[in-house]
Design goal:
This protein is mainly β. The chain has a domain of 212 residues: Alpha-Beta Complex (Sulfite Oxidase, Chain A, domain 2). The protein is 10% helix and 38% strand. The protein is built from five helices and 21 strands. The strands form five sheets. Strands 1-14-15-19-18 form a five-stranded antiparallel β-sheet. A five-stranded mixed β-sheet has the order 3-2-11-6-7. Strands 4, 5, 8, 9 and 10 form a five-stranded antiparallel β-sheet that branches. β8 and β9 form a beta hairpin. The longest helix has 14 residues.
Length: 385
C-alpha cells in the first residue's frame, strides 16, 4: 500500500468511524448480544405509535439499520388513503406541455430506472417522540424524464402534483367561506422540477410502495420536508401561474419573527427544505459502557459535526455512521458514553453543517409562532440503574 492510499484510509477512519478491519463499526445498530436498552423517562407511558390503522409513528428506539422497513416507516396524510388499481392507474401530464401524456405503471417501469436514498421527516415532527421520520431507498425515474417526454412549453413556470386523495374544504375569502372539493396538491418551480433531483418512486427498499407510502407512485423531493412527497400521484399539471392550494400555500407555512435593523419583522415562509436537526434515538448498555444512537435530518448540505452533551458537561464529538453517508439519507450517529453514574441524566445532541449552520436551541426558536419546522435541540432524560 503506498503512502497516499494509507493517508486516505487514515482520513476515512476519522470521518466515517471505520474499525480496525476497515468495516463500518456502527452500520448494524440492532441490539447486539448482551446489549440492553436504557429507558428514556421522557416518553409518556401513554405514547401511541399506531394511533389509527392508516397512521404510524416510528418508535426510534427500534432502529435496526440504515433504512426504515416498509412496515415501520411513519405514515400520515390529510384525507383518506385511496385504493388504486394498478391495472387502470394512469399518471397524466397536462397543461402547458407539447404532448399531453398519460403513463401506465408499466410505462413508468419500462423507463430506465434509478435509485435514490432519501430520508425525510414530516414538518410537524417534534418532541417527545420525533417519530414522524424515516429513511428509504427509492426506485423510480427522475421527474425530469417524464417532463421531457411531455415537453414543457416556454411559458411553463410551475409544476403542480396532485394525489388522487380529496376532500371537502372550507376555502375562506374575506368574509365568505366556500365549501369546495380539493385534491391534495403541491407544486415545485420549473427549474427545480427539471434539475434531475425530484424523483418519481414506485418502490422503496426494493419492493413496491405500500398503500401507506402512496402506492403505486409518489413524488420524492430529496432534502425537503415530507409534505412535498405527494403520495398516490395521479396528475402533474404544468402552468404559468403560482399554485395556491391549501396544502401548499396555507397549511404548510411558518410564521416567525426576525430582528432586522433593530425592528421585529414577522414573516411567513413556505415549508420546503428540511431544517438542520438531530436528536438522540436510543441509549444502550453493554459490558463496555453506554452507547448513544441518534439521527440527523437535513437538506443534503454536508455535515461538519454532530456533538453530544451529557448533563452540564462539555460538547463531545459523536461519530457519523458510514452506512448513511449518501447525500440525502438521514444520518445515524453514535457516541460512546463512559462513566455514566446511576440516576437520571440529560443527553442532548447538536449538529452543524459545512456552511456553519448550527442546530438551534429551543430558546432560539422562541419567535417561531407556528409549530411546524421544530428543529430545536432536544434534551432527553434517561435513567441509569
Ligand atoms: N397525496 C398525499 N400525499 C401526501 C400527503 C397527503 O395528505 N396526501 N401528506 C404529506 C405529508 S404531510 C407527509 S409528512 C408525507 C408522509 O409520507 P409517508 O406517509 O410515506 O411517511 O406525505 C405527504 N404526501
Ligand atoms: Mo407532514
Amino acid at each position: 500500500m503506498n503512502n497516499t492510499r494509507r493517508e486516505i484510509l487514515r482520513g476515512s477512519v476519522a470521518i466515517a468511524g471505520l474499525g480496525v478491519l476497515g468495516l463500518p463499526e456502527w452500520s448494524m445498530p440492532a441490539l447486539a448480544q448482551g446489549e440492553t436498552q436504557v429507558p428514556f423517562t421522557d416518553i409518556p407511558a401513554t405514547a401511541n405509535f399506531a394511533p389509527a390503522p392508516d397512521r404510524r409513528v416510528v418508535d426510534l428506539r427500534k432502529i435496526d439499520g440504515p433504512f426504515t422497513s416498509r412496515d415501520q416507516f411513519y405514515t400520515i396524510q390529510h384525507y383518506n388513503q385511496p385504493e388504486i388499481d394498478p391495472a387502470t392507474y394512469r399518471l397524466s401530464i397536462s397543461g402547458l406541455v407539447d404532448r399531453p401524456t398519460s403513463l401506465s405503471l408499466d410505462d413508468l417501469r419500462r423507463l430506465r430506472s434509478s435509485e435514490l436514498v432519501a430520508g425525510f421527516e414530516c414538518s410537524g415532527n417534534r418532541r417527545p417522540l420525533q417519530g414522524l421520520c424515516g429513511n428509504g431507498r427509492w426506485t423510480g425515474v427522475p421527474l425530469r424524464t417524464v417532463l421531457d417526454r411531455a415537453g414543457l412549453k416556454n411559458q411553463a413556470r410551475e409544476i403542480v402534483f396532485f394525489g388522487t386523495d380529496r376532500g371537502d374544504e372550507d376555502v375562506e375569502f374575506r368574509t365568505n367561506t366556500f365549501k369546495v372539493q380539493q385534491q391534495f396538491g403541491r407544486s415545485l418551480p420549473r427549474d427545480f422540477a427539471m434539475s434531475g433531483e425530484p424523483f418519481l418512486a414506485y418502490a422503496m427498499n426494493g419492493e413496491p410502495l405500500t398503500k401507506n407510502q402512496g402506492f403505486p407512485v409518489r413524488l420524492i423531493v430529496p432534502g425537503w420536508y415530507g409534505v412535498s412527497n405527494v403520495k398516490w400521484l395521479s396528475q402533474i399539471h404544468v402552468q404559468d401561474e403560482q399554485y395556491l392550494g391549501k396544502f401548499h400555500a396555507r397549511c404548510y407555512r411558518t410564521l416567525h419573527g426576525e430582528m432586522i435593523d433593530g425592528e421585529m419583522k414577522w414573516t411567513e415562509t413556505a415549508i420546503s427544505k428540511m431544517r438542520l436537526k438531530s436528536f438522540i434515538a436510543r441509549v444502550t448498555k453493554d459490558a463496555g459502557g453506554h452507547k448513544v444512537l441518534g439521527v440527523v435530518l437535513h437538506d443534503g448540505t454536508p455535515i461538519k459535526s454532530v456533538e453530544v452533551k451529557v448533563d452540564e458537561g462539555a460538547w463531545q464529538p459523536a461519530t457519523l455512521d458510514s452506512a448513511t453517508s449518501s447525500k440525502y439519507a438521514w444520518k445515524l450517529f453514535n457516541y460512546k458514553w463512559t462513566g455514566a453514574t446511576p440516576g437520571e441524566h440529560t443527553l442532548v445532541s447538536r449538529v452543524t453543517d459545512v456552511t456553519g449552520r448550527v442546530q438551534p436551541t429551543l430558546e432560539a426558536l422562541e419567535t417561531k409562532k407556528t409549530f411546524l419546522e421544530d428543529n430545536s435541540q432536544f434534551p432527553r432524560k434517561v435513567m441509569i440503574s
